[in-house]
Specification:
This protein is mostly beta strands. It has one helix and five strands, in the order ββββαβ. The chain has one domain: OB fold (Dihydrolipoamide Acetyltransferase, E2P). The model has no long low-confidence stretch (mean pLDDT 89).
Length: 90
């Protein structure tokens, strides 16, 4: 799982049918402090109604996306699994 911050929404006029009715958000992986960027941002399908600014847990693996969103989601490789309320280090 990847700890990430939602940094934006994506919009497309033409898309694969598996994306119909689903929000695709731009997420930025972050360190355990919830703020320090870690790597490059990527697109993730929202399954928990997250919004810009939310700290979330993402799975970046196609099989997990298929298990969460259904069998007809072949092109999906990342899904937001939960919104993080707090992170405690140490």
């Amino acid at each position: 799982m990847i700890l990430a911050r939602v940094i934006g929404n994506s919009v497309a006029t033409v898309k694969h049918p598996c994306f119909d009715g689903k929000a695709v958000l731009i997420v930025q992986p972050v360190r355990g402090d919830g703020e320090t960027p870690l790597g490059r941002s990527f697109l993730s399908v929202d399954s928990v109604q997250a919004g810009v600014g939310d700290l979330v847990l993402c799975a970046r693996e196609g099989n997990t996306a298929r298990q969460i969103l259904g069998k007809d989601t072949d092109p999906l490789h990342s899904v937001i699994l939960g919104i993080v309320d707090a992170v405690t280090l140490g």
